[in-house]
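Morning, I've got a small favour to ask if you have a moment. Here's the protein in full, and shout if anything looks odd to you:
***
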Amino acid sequence: MRAVVQRVSEASVAVGDDVVGAIGRGAAVLLGVASNDTGDDADRLAGKVARLRIFENEDGRLDGSLVDVDGEVLVISQFTLIADTRKGNRPSFTDAARPEQAEPLVDAFAAALRGSGIRVETGEFGAYMQVELVNDGPVTIVLDL
């Protein structure tokens, strides 16, 4: 499982002309699920995202988490994060989970974040989406399990 976590001042996701998820201050999380990922991985990664200290304290140090600052999260499923680009120029997605495995794990990740008291919005699994965000800082962290 791989997450690209971007600290944002706002973010939204649309499918066609309809905005299906929007947040204010918090994090946009692009989430890739690999074929060997489990529900335990989703819980563990959600816990790490919830406690990841990416918000500045009064001294300017990155010391606050989403839980600490009452931040929100926009979760976007993105199988392309699992691309293997070691050979050639065409990405291989053979390690990405099939949709029937990935969708419940994306849902479990979002549910685990909600269980930490975080407001979570999501994109639409499997849909062609347009994501807009204002990366605050910029701060972008890649988490791999």
